C-alpha cells in the first residue's frame, strides 16, 4: 500500500508549455501499485530558470521536460548524460541532492519502437520538425541504420543543422507524395490550438507505408486517424510517451515495473487502445 502523503514524500513533476494529465496518471498509478512514497504533478511555467531553481532548491526528485524547454533547459543544469549531450536535448532531469543531471529518454523510446515495429531501415523517411524532440527522433533513426531521410523545417538554420549533423537532406517544404515513412515532430494535431491540424496532407498519407506521430495528446491525432483509415502502419505518440515515461520512472525510483504493471498504468493513463501496442 502506498503511504499517505507526508513530509518524506518525494515529488516528481513535468514542465511543459501545454501540460497534460497522462504523465501524472501513469506515474501515480505505478506508485500506487508498487507502494512507493512518491507523488507526480504536471506544471507549466513562463520562467524556466526559476522553475529549474525550484527543482534544485525544493529537493524535487525529478522532472520531465517537454516542448518548448528541451534545449533551453541545458544551461540551467549541471551534467548531461550521453543520451542528452549527443543531441543537445533534455527531456528528463534527475536531482541527486541538488545536482541536476539531464537525460533524453525520448531517444531511447523512439529507437526501441523502430525496432519493435520492425520498420525497415532501408525505408526513406521525412521528419517534419527541427526542435528538441526532432533531434531525438533523427538521432534514433540514424542509430537504427536509416540513411535516406529528409528533415522538413521552415526554420532553415535549425533544419539544415539537424539534417547535416546526421547526414540527411533538408527541405523547407514537403516534397511530392511518395515517401514511405512520414514522421511528425511538430505540435500539429496536439490538443489545443493545433488539435485539428493535419501534419501531412492526404496525398502524402496515401503515398506512405508508415505513419509515425510523436504527438501523444490526443493519441488519435488527425494524422493517426487518417493513416489508420488509409490502412497504413502506424506508430503513435502514446507509445512514445509510455516508453519514455517508464524510463523516467526507473531513473527517479530505481525500480523497473513489470510489463503487466506498465500495461495497466498505460491503459489507466491513455485508454484501452494503447494496450495492444505495448
What does this 3D model show about the protein?
The protein has 278 residues and is α/β, with parallel strands linked by helices. The protein folds into two domains: 10-103 and 239-277, 3-Layer(aba) Sandwich (Rossmann fold); 107-235, 3-Layer(aba) Sandwich (Rossmann fold). It contains ten helices and twelve strands. A six-stranded mixed β-sheet has the order 2-1-3-5-6-4, sandwiched between helices. A six-stranded parallel β-sheet has the order 9-8-7-10-11-12, sandwiched between helices. The two termini are 26 Å apart.
CATH topology of the largest domain: Rossmann fold
Shape descriptor reads globular
Instruction: Report strand %.
Output: 15-25%
Q: What is the helix content?
A: 25-40%
Radius of gyration: 18 Å
Low-confidence stretches: none
Order of helices and strands: EHEHEEHEEHEHEHEEHEHEHH
How would you state the average pLDDT, rounded?
Answer: 94
What is the number of helices?
10
Classified in CATH, the superfamily of the largest domain is: Leucine Dehydrogenase, chain A, domain 1
Distance between the termini: 26 Å
Total DSSP E strands: 12
Strand arrangement within the widest β-sheet reads 2-1-3-5-6-4
Structural category is: alpha/beta
Total individual domains: 2
Largest sheet: 6 strands, mixed
CATH class designation of the largest domain: Alpha Beta
Amino acid at each position: 500500500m502506498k503511504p499517505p502523503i507526508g513530509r518524506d514524500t518525494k515529488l516528481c513533476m513535468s514542465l511543459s508549455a501545454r501540460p497534460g494529465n497522462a504523465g501524472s496518471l501513469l506515474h501515480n498509478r505505478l506508485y500506487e501499485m508498487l507502494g512507493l512514497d512518491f507523488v507526480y504533478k504536471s506544471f507549466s511555467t513562463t520562467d524556466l530558470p526559476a522553475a529549474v531553481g525550484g527543482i534544485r532548491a525544493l529537493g524535487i526528485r525529478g522532472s520531465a521536460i517537454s516542448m518548448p524547454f528541451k534545449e533551453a533547459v541545458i544551461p540551467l543544469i549541471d551534467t548531461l548524460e550521453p543520451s542528452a549531450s549527443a543531441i543537445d536535448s533534455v527531456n528528463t532531469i534527475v536531482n541527486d541532492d541538488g545536482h541536476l543531471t539531464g537525460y533524453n529518454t525520448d531517444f531511447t523510446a523512439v529507437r526501441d519502437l523502430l525496432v519493435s515495429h520492425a520498420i525497415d531501415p532501408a525505408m526513406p523517411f521525412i521528419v517534419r520538425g527541427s526542435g528538441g524532440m526532432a533531434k531525438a527522433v533523427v538521432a534514433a533513426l540514424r542509430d537504427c541504420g536509416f540513411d535516406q531521410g529528409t528533415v522538413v523545417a521552415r526554420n532553415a538554420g535549425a533544419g539544415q543543422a539537424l539534417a547535416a549533423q546526421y547526414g540527411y537532406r533538408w527541405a523547407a517544404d514537403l516534397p511530392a507524395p511518395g515517401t514511405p515513412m512520414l514522421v511528425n515532430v511538430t505540435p500539429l494535431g496536439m490538443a489545443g490550438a493545433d488539435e485539428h491540424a493535419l501534419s501531412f496532407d492526404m496525398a502524402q498519407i496515401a503515398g506512405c507505408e508508415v505513419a509515425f506521430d510523436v504527438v501523444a495528446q490526443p493519441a488519435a491525432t488527425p494524422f493517426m486517424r487518417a493513416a489508420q483509415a488509409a490502412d497504413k502502419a502506424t506508430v503513435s505518440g502514446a507509445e512514445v510517451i509510455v516508453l519514455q515515461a517508464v524510463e523516467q520512472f526507473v531513473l527517479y525510483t530505481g525500480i523497473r515495473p513489470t510489463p503487466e504493471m506498465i500495461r495497466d498504468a498505460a491503459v489507466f493513463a491513455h485508454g484501452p487502445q494503447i494496450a495492444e501496442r505495448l
